[in-house]
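dumping this here before i forget
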Amino acid sequence: MIHVGQSSSLSLTASPLPRRGKHKIFIGMAPGVGKTYRMLEEGQQLKQEGFDVVIGLLETHSREETAQKAIGLEQVPLKTMTWQGRSLLEMDTGAILARSPQLALVDELAHTNIPGSDREKRYQDVELILGAGIDVYSTLNIQHLESLNDLVHKISGVVVRERVPDRLLDDADEVIVIDITPETLQERLQEGKIYAPDKINQALQNFFKRQNLVALRELALREVANNIEENSRHDQQTNHCAIHERVLVCISTYPNSIQLLRRGGRIASQMNGRLFVLFVAPTNQFLSKLEALHVETCQHLTQEFEGEFIRQESDDVVGAIAQVAVNYRITQIVLGESRRSRWHLLVKGSIVQKLMRCLPSVDLHIIANG
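structure:
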């Protein structure tokens, strides 16, 4: 994540451009979930490990716990700017670049800079810092993403003025969702840990209404999950992590496959995942009329569960399952135990071990009959 730079010997050749810094974003559904606290916590841990960590910009919003967590971290001095006759403090990007730490902590990524600043938005300052080879940890609320502006307005009735382009999330090296329940967040608000006492009731009646928080929480989790899964499609490695659960039910021509499929459908529903059903047919072997009818029934049942039915011809059952699991990014496999079918080998022989070796990141469910 954080790479320690190594000194190099003098060379007559031109110096290579610095590597781009790594960007880690802590994102949440609303103010007060703990994004800044978590960012500072990780910064403190890295400092203890010997990394050069500074605070580029910190907004504690008078939260004592957050301010306490920043103690001991170097703060790059802010610069004073004058606007409409007032002196205001802003992050000094030039000073951060001159200081050249390994990691800079920058709060509130969506902030709009004071008029007259070199750059309009704080995220543009962050991109400049990253371009200089400095790693950045930053914080962001989900409602500040540009593409979600209309949806957030529909959910909460609030028009978010400060927004960032979605590419920031796409380009980030790591995105951490700071997630708490709406009830916990409301409790923190009522305890005065988010806003001043005179703003609490107004917040509870508006943005911090439970139904708003429930919708924003779901939005944050879904947006980040979709973002990571979309990025994984471009990953050429076979061993990657899928975010949404994908359940593969392996059926045979025996009647107990109906119960197995229903069990798999329930598992997929409980996990809020996608259902896939696989039937591996032996090559050059015709199914009887009764077997063909059974497979067709399983296919119809799969459609009722809003799943996807997959039919493969192969004499290598394990190989077919493994290939489908990789191609469809399966996270859970459901198999049935039967003493009367070739699926019996999956629970009595070494085939389960072979599947476990082929698919170390996939969970196997062996369902007993009865």
